[in-house]
Amino acid sequence: MFVQGAQALIYTVGKTEEERDLIVKSIGRKWLYTFAALFVFGVAFLVSFPLFFAVSFGALYWVILFCFVIQTVSHEFLFKKNNFKGYKYFLMFGGIAGAVIVGTVIGTFFNGAFFSIKEANITPYRGFEAILNPHNLLLGISVYLLARVLALLYFINNIRNEQIVTRSKIRLFSNAIALVVCFFSFLVWLMLKNGFSYDAATKTVSMDAYKYFYNLLAMPLVFGLLLAGIGLLFFGIARSLIDSRFTDGIWYSGAGAKLTVFSFWLIAGLNHTCYYPSLYDIQDSLTIENSSSTYQALKSVSYVSLATPFALAFIFWKRKGAYGLNKNPLNIFDKVKPL
């Protein structure tokens, strides 16, 4: 998601047209990563939990799709001759809206959504009601701020331009403070709220106080992953701000973000927890047990997942993006040429 954050910062960090082109050129190496990650996640989730896909697709998913479509079109045509001049604004819109809505949708895994596995078309606002839940929206803002922070760390690592790096560090401090406030507010709220759990024997769903806090206590390995993720995330930020010669913050913070998000997925579905609660009928809430695919499908997905390291190795080996760039950091003298 750091690509989305970078798109949102085009006009904040880049003050001249040349600097903005340089930022977009840098993103052009990486923008496919977001699509690859979402595609792999979506296909794996579809095969593993088909019932989730059957009940979850509301209007917000179409907004996310629209954001990524205009992002694709903008990257494809931005530097062509006689192009439309508003593509950078499209990138900025897609970066902001895409990150916020993705985070808001993920919030429904903890706060629930209106759906039924017995009836169709019972959602009152076609999925937009997720935005009305402040806890969902707080996670959406946190994801957006995290994307901005990772993007700023990426600029520091990837672009050799004094003005851009200086502005990135200034913005990094303010965005990191905002991220701390929003993320820890969401986390504390999550630990204190009631959660959706189900009985292992009867499969009856009920509300439990402090459910997600007890999930962490019951799974110390997940608790450790969460603490390690948060520690790595803020270590990368702090050292980037303190040490003027340190440019590898994106690697520490990026790894920390992955561990943190992975921990959230685990506490959302393990320890007899409903990973997609139903606000229409609590007994329709989805769990790993009642919504998983067949054994053969899950077995196939597990085999396919073994290819993920090879796919990542291929990406790092190629490391050429939309504009045919090599892996060296960019500087202000790297001109962007029309395709």
Main β-sheet: number of strands, strand sense, barrel status? Answer: 2 strands, parallel
What best-fitting shape do the alpha-carbon axes yield?
Answer: globular
Spatial strand sequence of the major β-sheet = 1-4
- SSE-based structural type: mainly alpha
The figure for the number of domains is 1
Helix fraction by DSSP (H/I, runs of at least 4): 55-70%
Fraction in beta strands:
under 5%
Number of helices: 15
Mean pLDDT: 85
What can you tell me about this protein's structure?
The protein has about 350 residues and is mainly alpha-helical. The radius of gyration is 21 Å and the shape is globular. It is built from 15 helices and four strands. It has helices spanning about 1-10, 10-15, 15-25, 30-50, 50-55, 60-75, 85-110, 135-160, 160-190, 210-220, 220-240, 250-270, 290, 295-305, 310-320, and strands at about 160, 195-200, 205-210, 330. The longest helix has about 30 residues, at about 160-190. The strands form two sheets. Strands 1-4 form a two-stranded parallel sheet. A two-stranded antiparallel sheet has the order 2-3. The protein has one domain. Mean pLDDT is about 85; it is low at about 320-330 and about 330-339.
